[in-house]
């Protein structure tokens, strides 16, 4: 049954994307940028509803009160494609740093360009960082919220963290709060996997880390608070009434935490 539901959800997920892009394209491109955000935010909400209705995966978010007004850096844990869109409904005017090749995709790339994202050439690391900082600074000056995934790539739940220094560099350059976000979505929507599992994705929005820390101290704190919360959410999932299948990284981490999977 889980295989059938996964197949149904994946099919509906991509149909939902295509249909909404076609239907709402005139409104999206004729509207002011901030008003046009209602289209991708509605798409995000509809995906969350589909996942609950088709697969049986619900969502619980703690700590919405920790989201500040105005500009800040949003730093979610990156475990799944799920976390690229799930937080959109709760962020006023986000801007993503992304590889420039995405802007070349017909229609999808035009959607990205409409929102004035920050495209970078990942093949040129030093130039890419300068472009990222320049674009991030402009976004923050406009009151927007910068989305950064501190590890840069998706990691399996429980895997040893590898936080990159880029987020610390941008933190030091911008002087705005950083909001860490922990979650366990990778257990229910595994990276590079077809399967989707029922249960409850739990997400914890942590108190902002205020500007002014030394970059190294900031990165250490960001990793510490995010990973501690992810460990707690991993344990909760393992002890839940209907736990999802645990990847080897999660099983190993649970053993290190003294919990049987």
Automatic annotation (TrEMBL):
Pfam family, one: Acyltransferase
Pathway: Lipid metabolism
Residue spans crossing the bilayer: 12-30
Keyword Isomerase: no
GO MF term (any one): 1-acylglycerol-3-phosphate O-acyltransferase activity
InterPro entries linked: Plipid/glycerol_acylTrfase (IPR002123)
Superkingdom, taxonomy of origin: Bacteria
Keywords from the named record: Acyltransferase, Membrane, Transferase, Transmembrane, Transmembrane helix
BP terms from Gene Ontology: phosphatidic acid biosynthetic process
Domain annotation Phospholipid/glycerol acyltransferase: ranges: 72-186
Protein name: 1-acyl-sn-glycerol-3-phosphate acyltransferase
Organism: Phyllobacterium endophyticum
